[in-house]
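Handout for the seminar on molecular recognition.
Each group receives one record of this type.
Step one: identify the two inputs.
Step two: read the structure output and locate the region that could contact glutamic acid.
Step three: write two sentences on what you found, then compare them with the reference statements printed after the record.
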Amino acid sequence: MTVRTRVAPSPTGDPHVGTAYVALINFLFAKKHAGKFLLRIEDTDQARSTRESEHAILESLRWLGLSWDEGPDIGGPHGPYRQSERSAIYTKYIDELLAAGNAFECFCSPERLEEMRVAQRAAKQPSRYDGLCAGLSAEEKRAHKAQGDPFVVRLKVPGDGVCVVQDERRGAIEIEWKSVDMQVLMKSDGLPTYHLANVVDDHLMEITHVIRGEEWVSSAPKHLLLYSYFGWEAPKLIHLPLLRNPDKSKLSKRKNPTGILFYQRMGYLPEALMNFLGLLASSHGEGDEMMSLDTLCERFDLAHISMGGPVFDVAKLDWLNGRYLREGLTGAEFLGRIGQWGFTPERIERIAALAQPRVERLSDLGPFLAFFFAGRLAVTAEDLRAGKLADLEMRQAFALAQMEFDALAGWTIAAIDAGLKRIAGALGKKLRDVMRPFYVAITGSPTSVPLYDAMEILGRDIVRERLRMALELLGKPSAKELEEWRKLLPPEAPADIVA
Ligand code: GLU
């Protein structure tokens, strides 16, 4: 048997270090066993998936030094590797499930489902479809269809008993069938949901080992049920523990940057980040910790994957990255890396065009533009306070900006402008007054090159981090404050994602 593994990201946001971690482990496991590693794009959530996100994910994984044997960019014998291009394949399997009585058509309206949910919540029951449509007669279904009622297809789930999920590292995990929802497998537009597409593709792509994050354990019973309904052998399952912040909470961008692009823009070397992620995966720490991908592969053993919630400790990454910069590169290579990192001709050209109308001597450029090439800025709370907004208003503006910016489909000047205008409107302030503390937080000074250009060039991750640092100076918002402040924003979607 040839080992075949895959990473199956959903292209719904910026590339995440967790995706790189899962990809690396799948890559190492496949290479260790002379197998194949695939990349599949799971874009069944059409509303949230974008090609920009897909592109950024592929680019980041490539930047990190990973390569795949089959994927949407290079093709392969089991393609297409993008689920949105495989719709016809899934329809066939939905028909098979319906014909065998292992799935059923559900005509329940959103209102009925909502009523059901409210009643379940009130009765403190888990939220789960109640099975009403599973009992419809052929006559009733025909009548619904004759009326043109929209319907979804749901999975039939056993009423009682337990499902035993055999995890290669965790052992047997028992999950009661009554806690498993009658999952929607096909939406009313005829497109599959993640669960159906994931199982069909893993089978057709001959995946032997599914290695993924532990957030998917609760989905495993649905998947195992589908494998058994189709009469297919299920792949081996391994659920990895989630990466943690140093305080052991789940790695989240509120506490720690999680975007691969952030680490790239901060000047971490891909080989250092990869090495760091490899160390997180391995619980045995002998010998030199500075290791190439080849050495990580040689030493890789699934049995040694740490199951204790590996801590994404940036201090350790800093140490490792420093070693790579000092010991891993010749002077010429170091110079080359500086260029690739932040001094590309296109970037310099844009920055120079912004600076030219604003300088009197070339030597003004250094202090004026240093923020483009810096990580965290030496800004104080007093620097932020010199404008017209009170502390609370600045904290609200920064926190709302983080929410707005995270929700933007694209990082463009127009989208940034629309976001800041919405925030000024929500706070009832002049845009000019709101922009001032942003200038300070992001460029280090109340006057600089145009703010939106600066933000676009810096990238979303660095901007997010600088706003996070500013919030730390003024007082980090509590979860309760965030919830309340969120309500200040008008409900409509940010400008650039309205169709
Ligand atoms: N598309 C899922 C994700 O984004 C993949 C889960 C899996 O590996 O089965 O994480």
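Reference statements: Residues 8-10, 42, 198, 212, 216 surround glutamic acid (CB under 6 Å). The chain has three domains: 4-84+244-321, 86-240, 381-486.
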